[in-house]
Amino acid sequence: MAALAMPFETITVLVLAAGQSRRFGSDKRLAELPGRGTLLAATLATLRPHFRDIRVVIGSDDDAATLGIPADIVTLANPDAQRGMGTSLAVGMHALSQASRARAVAIMLGDMPWIRDATFMAVAQRAGEALIVRPTFQGEGGHPVVFGRQFWPALCRLDGDGGARHLLLDNPAACIEIATADPGVLKDVDEPDALEPT
């Protein structure tokens, strides 16, 4: 499916990939998917046809090449990754706020390579500077979550493990949920048996 030129060029993607993979038992980012390379590389490959600006938050001790991150994708190091996902969001959003003119940021997890093209298109088409857009599957919210620029300062202040969920709860009027038939919006990888395709 061909990617659209707009509004995708006005959306930056921030991929959170600095996690410690404690439940997985090893570095899940390097787990192999048959025919698709590593888990993180496969996730990035699903994004590249649709988004021009993709940035990946990794740990300060990580090596982007070892993780399979292409050289043309910007990586951002989070020295406090062990403190939780909120710190990775804050590190990424600080960098974006200074360097990006995008009107929205799509937050993705580095272990979600099964999201369908149509889902990326649907959330991107609804994005706006004052909106929060996320896909749902069977009533449950998933990823990517697209935050308009109005919410970037709040994302910069995140800390710990809470992530950005409270922003959705605190701003219901700004939230748009898009019902999809895509189970990939919910499927991440915590344990090795989750590597099986949806």
Describe this structure in words.
The protein has about 200 residues and is an alpha/beta fold. It has a single domain, classed as Spore Coat Polysaccharide Biosynthesis Protein SpsA, Chain A (Alpha-Beta Complex). About 25% of the residues lie in helices and about 25% in strands. It has helices at about 40-45, 85-100, 115-125, 150-155, 165-170, and strands at about 10-15, 30-35, 35-40, 55-60, 75-80, 105-110, 130-135, 140, 145-150, 175-180. It starts with 10 loop residues before the first strand and ends in an 18-residue tail after the last strand.
Fourth-tier CATH superfamily name: Spore Coat Polysaccharide Biosynthesis Protein SpsA, Chain A
The total number of structural domains is 1
CATH topology: Spore Coat Polysaccharide Biosynthesis Protein SpsA, Chain A
Number of strands: 10
Which spans have pLDDT < 50 for at least 5 consecutive residues? 1-7
Radius of gyration: 15 Å
Strand content: 15-25%
The DSSP helix count reads 5
The CATH architecture can be named as: Alpha-Beta Complex
Q: Write down the CATH class.
A: Alpha Beta
The structural class is alpha/beta
Question: How much helix, percentage-wise, in residues?
Answer: 10-25%
The mean pLDDT is 88
Order of helices and strands: EEEHEEHEHEEEHHE
Shape assignment: globular
Oligomer: single chain
Characterize the main sheet. Answer: 8 strands, mixed
Cα separation of the termini = 19 Å
